[in-house]
Amino acid sequence: IQRAFEQGSLTGRRIIVTSGPTHEPIDPVRYIANRSSGAQGTAIARALAALGAEVVFVTGPADVPPPVGVEVMRVETAREMLAAVESALPADAGVFAAAVADWRVKEASMSKIKKEKGTLPSLSFEENPDILATVCRSEQRPRLVVGFAAETDDVVSHATAKRARKECDWIVANDVSPGTGIMGGSENAITLIDGDGAEEWPRMGKDEVARKLAARIAESLS
Ligand code: CTP
Ligand code: CA
Q: Where is the signal peptide (predicted)?
C-alpha cells in the first residue's frame, strides 16, 4: 500500500517535453521568433513530473520559469533544440509543445548591423529542422509522440493533416485566432487528434489542460 501510494502512474517513464519559442539570431542584438510564453509546455512538464515521470524539459527562452523537479536543458535556436532532444533520447514519450521558428537567417551577422540612411538590410532565410518530424522518423522514436498545432483557420483539418505529415501519434490542436485570447492567456481550448478522430475539450486553464493530457499519456503508456 505504501509503495502504491508513493508511486505515480508515470513512475519509471522518461518523457521529453519541448517548450517555449526558439530565437534565431539576425545579429548579436536581434532575432526572429514565434510568440510563445512557454506556459502550456511548462504546465505539461509539471503535470507529468507530478505523476512520477522523469521529465527532460528542453526549453527555448520562455517568459515563465521551468518547473522544479525536472531536468532542464536551455537552448536558443531550433538547431540547438534538436541536438538537445536527440541527446535526451531514448524516452518513453515526447511532447513537442515548443513554438519552433520555421526559418533561420542564412548568415547571421557576427557584428551588429548598423542603420544606414537610405538602405535597408535584406535578410535571406533557410528552413530549420523539424524536430517533431525528425524524432518521429528516428530509430529511437518514443512509443508515444505528441505534437501541437496552433492554428488560426480550419483548426481540425490543418491539425489532422499535420499529424499525418509528421507521423506523430497525437496532435494537440488549438485555435489561436486573435479574439480568442488564447495566445498569451492563461486558458486554452484544445482539440485532441489521434488515429480515431478529433475530441474537443472545453475551454479550461492551461494547468487543467496539462493535467488532463498527462493523465491521458499515463493511460496510453500503462
Ligand atoms: N515543430 C518542430 N520543429 C519545427 C517546427 C515545428 O518540432 N521546426 C513542432 C512543434 O513543436 C509542434 C508541431 O511541430 O509540435 C507543429 O508545429 P507547427 O508550427 O504548427 O507546424 P509546421 O509544420 O511548422 O507548420 P506551419 O507553421 O506552417 O503551420
Ligand atoms: Ca511552424
A: none
- Which residues share a beta bridge with 105? 125
State the alpha helices, DSSP H only, in 137-178. Answer: 155-166
User: Which pLDDT score is estimated for 2?
Assistant: 52
- Using one digit for the tens of pLDDT, what is the confidence trace for 81-139? 999 999 999 999 999 999 999 999 999 999 999 998 889 999 999 999 999 999 999 99
Pick the CATH number of 2-108+123-221 from 3.40.50.10490, 3.40.50.1820, 3.40.50.10300, 2.40.30.10: 3.40.50.10300
The residue count of the chain comes to 222
Active site residue 128: no
Which amino acid, residue 74?
Answer: R
Q: Which residues line ligand 1 (CB under 6 A)?
A: 18, 78, 96, 98, 100, 102, 128, 130-132, 147-150, 162
Q: How far apart are CA 79 and CA 127, in angstroms?
A: 11
- ipTM (interface predicted TM): 0.98
